[in-house]
Amino acid sequence: MTPRPALRDHGVIERSADRGRLAGGEMATRQETTPKTESLGKRCVLLVEDEPTLSKLVGKLLDEEGYEHVSIADHKQIADAIVRWRPQCIILDSDPGSPGHERSWVDAAAIRRAHPDLPVLMFTADPASMAEARAGTTARSKAAGYAGVIDKPFLVVEFLATLKHAVDAPQTSSARDGKGIAAEAISVFPDLDGPASANWSVADFFSMAVHELRTPLTSIDGHAQLAQRFIAKDPLRAADSLARIREQSKRMNRLIGDLLDQARVNVGALSLEVVTFDLGVATAITIGLHEHEDTPRITFATPKTVRIQGDPERIAQILGNLLDNARKYSPPGSGIDVSLTVVGAEAQIRVTDRGVGVPDDERGRIFAPFYRTSRTRDIPGTGLGLHISRRIAEQHHGRLWLESSGGAGSVFVLALPLAQTGPHR
User: Fold this and answer.
1) Domains plus CATH for the chain?
2) What is the pTM for the complete model shown?
3) Closest CA to 143 of 120, 121, 185, 110
4) Model confidence pLDDT, tens digit, residues 307-327
């Protein structure tokens, strides 16, 4: 495809030399050649992105595909840019920790109210934001009415397909369903409750898997290059990079294990090696493996023998996930309490922490795959642990639930049937 001229070739925008962003973070214009309102054709895209390198990369892709584009770093410029350039689509940055993360939801809603026919795409590296925008069940996601999501880092073919659909498909207010999502965008942005939900789950799984694996892989590659550079002249710095490579390799190994388990539970292929064992002993061993000097203190009073039938390794996996979550989301110096009791025909393990808790409006979603709560998105994790743990519990004819939440920590409860054979004391 022969690329159309970029905006800078029209004398409309002057870019800072070799920096890939607009001068001073603003739209620098040549006043003598630029009127207050200028339509730039049927395929003009407004990119709102504060990361210069990424803005430059996306701009290059848009140029090569024949799109006109305007890039701005400040969300405050959106309204003026819409009036001035009359874009046919807006790509809106929404990353945790960035200045525009929370504001992007408000901006998307404002754009929809003022320009109901103008599609807005979410541009994010946050799986929780992606899931929320796709589901369209929260108040802010309904108000925003995103026409699609572009993942960071993205596959070029997926990026261009999502953009093309948003630009080409009708985006009238009547074409949007009750969730605020363009009804025609089902192949890109389907209704989770509709007939395409199964297909979306597969596509979403692979999209999330690629995204999560790329993060440690990028870190490994970068530190490998640093180690290679400093191995001779600065061995200590090289050693630090090698240590980080090992750390990220372990993270990738854990992630791959979670992804494989997620794939297995999706198709009912997670195998169990069922034996009769003492749940109290297994719990104590698992706690011992998760106690370290830099972790919160874990208290556990070993009870009398509580025998269950199940796969000890898989039960330990559930307990490990619960303990890891309690550790990650608890403040330094706080403790974790673990208890084992018998309630009727069930053994119940409670893991209590004093961490950030789970907001009431998010309690129903924390067991969904890849979900991260609004209070934990800046803490490393895949959002798979609780989902896999619940599925393993269900395979044991057991249950896993959140008993309490809010600002005073959380209590997760694992309930498993007692063994049918052998005496219980």
Assistant:
1) 7-199 (3.40.50.2300), 200-266 (1.10.287.130), 275-417 (3.30.565.10)
2) 0.47
3) 110
4) 999 999 999 999 998 998 888
